[in-house]
Design a protein that fits this description.
This protein is mainly α and 121 residues long. The protein has five helices and two strands.
Length: 121
């Protein structure tokens, strides 16, 4: 579904709302053509940073869920009512991580194919 005013998909508008600026930049780097411009070392760094952010979002969502069920004391002055925002953030970061890992696997397969072709010559 496209938002005609913004020229973007609804999912990306929701994603932008869920992620902070740095997380959005990381997630955006996992989309073509930006991800194809990254070197192998940069891609590895991107995967590491995405995994770190995803894990942090999951930890916060789990804590918020416990607070919402009154199983844990509130971390802030007001207890949270839902963990849905943090769950959405976790989901978007997980999707970005999967895109980056898929690109890394694609590159590894391409290198393997190139080595097999060179060895056959």
């Amino acid at each position: 579904m496209t938002d005609a005013r913004l020229g973007t998909t609804t999912a990306s508008v929701e994603e932008r709302r869920a992620l902070d600026a740095e997380e959005w930049q990381l997630a955006d780097m996992t989309r073509a053509p930006a991800i194809q411009r990254l070197g192998d070392a940069e891609l590895t760094e991107l995967i590491w940073r995405l995994r770190e952010r995803r894990n942090r979002a999951r930890e916060l969502a789990d804590r918020q869920a416990r607070e919402a069920r009154w199983k844990a004391d509130p971390a802030g002055s007001v207890p949270v009512r839902s963990d849905s925002g943090m769950r959405r953030k976790h989901g978007y970061l997980a999707e970005a991580l999967e895109r980056a890992k898929a690109e890394q696997a694609r590159r590894a397969e391409a290198r393997k194919q190139a080595e097999a072709t060179d060895a056959a010559r």
